[in-house]
Design goal:
The chain is elongated, with a radius of gyration of 23 Å. By secondary structure, the protein is mainly α. Helix 5 packs antiparallel against helix 8 and helix 6 packs antiparallel against helix 7. It folds into two domains: 77 residues; 217 residues, Cytochrome c oxidase, subunit III, four-helix bundle (Four Helix Bundle (Hemerythrin (Met), subunit A), Up-down Bundle), CATH 1.20.120.
Length: 295
């Protein structure tokens, strides 16, 4: 760690450009899929763009992370760079906080302001003249123009899969913390055991989330085209599910590195950064469970 007195500057890299290309195809394809999904159109090109972008992103992460790991294992990083890593991860998580804050803001606006206005409440409730029979309720299962857009048949029971997923994620945070303490104590066998449990809990969450979406689409008609409640539901839970999936990939990478003998009691920031991210995702889920499923 201390073999270089000066700040390490890596060689010029192709990975930022590869990342930009991958993000272009991934987000562009996802936008095409969502746009055409709401219009009831099957979009083959959107799926192709998304899968191509996803493949490029996998290639980018594999190569870029591999290069960083190689630099770290070669003792090229100084203490000063370690501080930069911590600051960078802190700002990244802060950006994720603001990312989800925007979506929770959408939920607040719809529930507290927009839907009541449509029902005639407040000084902006003149839209009630368009749908005089509309009543403001949440979850909104009776859309103002339901003849055109349709309505969901029901909502997800919060005390079934969502409650199980809450228990899974909270438990995974506990086991990951125990693994972190074991790493600091140099107990490699204990680390591996707790990491296996954490990964099983995380991937089980993802599997249950997928089964919940299947139920929402096939049994409850809860889709992106059946109103604002369904849209906000998938907006919040979908992005959170994507973050859990990314977190699982990060923790899997950490587990593989542990199996290879990487990290020490004093030098394991990659593990710490992954743990920070996982705990952040868990906190977001607790908010989702209360504000989206329960209340």
């Amino acid at each position: 760690m201390d073999s270089h007195e000066h700040y390490y500057i890596p060689e010029p890299s192709k990975w930022p450009i590869v990342c930009a290309v991958g993000l272009f195809f991934t987000l562009g394809g996802l936008g095409m899929i969502l746009f055409n999904m709401t219009a009831g159109i099957d979009d083959l090109w959107g799926q192709i763009f998304f899968m191509l972008g996803a493949a490029i992103m996998v290639y980018m992460f594999t190569g870029w992370f591999g290069a960083v790991i190689e630099e770290s294992m070669s003792n090229l990083y100084s203490d000063q760079l370690s501080v930069s890593f911590r600051k960078g991860m802190s700002w990244f998580i802060f950006s994720e906080v603001m990312f989800f804050a925007a979506f929770f803001g959408v939920l607040f606006y719809v529930r507290v302001l927009s839907v009541p206005w449509l029902a005639g409440e407040g000084d902006k409730g003149m839209a009630h003249m368009l749908w005089p029979d509309f009543t403001a309720t949440w979850p909104l299962l009776n859309n103002p123009n339901s003849e055109q857009f349709g309505t969901p048949k029901g909502v997800i029971d919060p005390w079934h899969i969502p409650l199980i997923n809450t228990i899974l994620l909270v438990s995974s945070s506990v086991t990951l913390t125990l693994a972190h303490h074991a790493l600091k104590a140099g107990k490699r066998g204990v680390i591996k055991a707790y990491m296996v449990i954490t990964l099983l809990l995380g991937f089980t969450f993802v599997g249950l989330q997928i089964s919940e979406y299947i139920e929402a689409y096939q049994q409850l008609d809860l889709t992106l085209s059946t109103g604002i409640y369904a849209s906000t539901f998938f907006l919040l839970t979908g992005f959170h599910g994507a973050h859990v999936t990314i977190g699982c990939i990060m923790l899997t990478t950490m587990f593989i590195r542990i199996l290879k003998g990487h990290f020490s009691a004093d030098d394991h920031f990659a593990f710490e950064a992954s743990a920070w991210y996982w705990h952040f995702v868990d906190v977001v889920w607790l908010l989702l469970f209360m504000l989206v499923y329960v209340f």
